[in-house]
Write a structure and sequence with these properties.
This protein has helices at residues 2-21, 50-58, 76-83, 85-88, 92-128, 132-162, 166-178. 68% of the residues lie in helices and 0% in strands. By secondary structure, it is mainly α.
Length: 179
């Protein structure tokens, strides 16, 4: 009998906890029960879609995913090699060279990414003015810059790889196969 009573109290506690954890209902006049206001951000109707995303970006609000904005992260291989510095027994000179290659790549990437942002502004203006030949040229220029960034990334990774000794390269290969 005691076990059944304890079970009933436990179930009631779960139900009460679940009810308390639910968000409060919004009334028609946008007031919430209990006098609190809804604290979630909701954009005005004229800011939905792309304008809404742009406003969130410009106002510094965090987004989980920005459609079409796939900026490359820092070189994964360079970070991976630096994380394995002890295991690979990298010298101070090698670490310094790898960091320099990474910094140089980030500078190039940032410059080209800024050019892409400027071209996107030009593209929007050309689309607005119905200058489709200019839009076509701008899109080609954008993807040319993205290709250059990707190729620069490959070159940087190759340069980092070439800074390693033969033994370090072999150890890196075996470690990468295991993961």
């Amino acid at each position: 009998m005691l076990k059944k009573t304890m079970l009933v109290f436990a179930l009631m506690a779960l139900i009460v906890g679940a009810l308390l954890a639910q968000p409060m209902r919004v009334e028609k006049n946008n007031e919430i029960d209990g006098g609190r206001r809804d604290r979630t951000y909701r954009a005005p109707n004229n800011m939905r879609g792309n304008n809404h995303q742009r406003a969130i970006r410009e106002n510094g609000m965090r987004m989980n995913h920005r459609k079409g904005d796939h900026k490359m992260k820092d070189m994964n291989s360079g970070r991976m090699i630096l994380a394995m510095a002890e295991e690979l027994e990298l010298t101070d000179t090698q670490i310094k060279n790898i960091k320099a290659i990474q910094a140089n790549f980030r500078k190039v990437r940032n410059t080209k990414q800024a050019e892409i942002e400027n071209l996107l502004i030009d593209k929007r203006e050309a689309m607005r003015d119905h200058r489709f030949k200019d839009v076509t040229k701008t899109v080609k220029d954008i993807y040319k810059l993205k290709e250059e960034i990707a190729l620069e990334n490959v070159t940087a990774i190759e340069d980092i790889y070439n800074k390693l000794t033969k033994d370090q390269q072999d150890l890196l290969k075996t470690n990468c196969k295991n993961k």
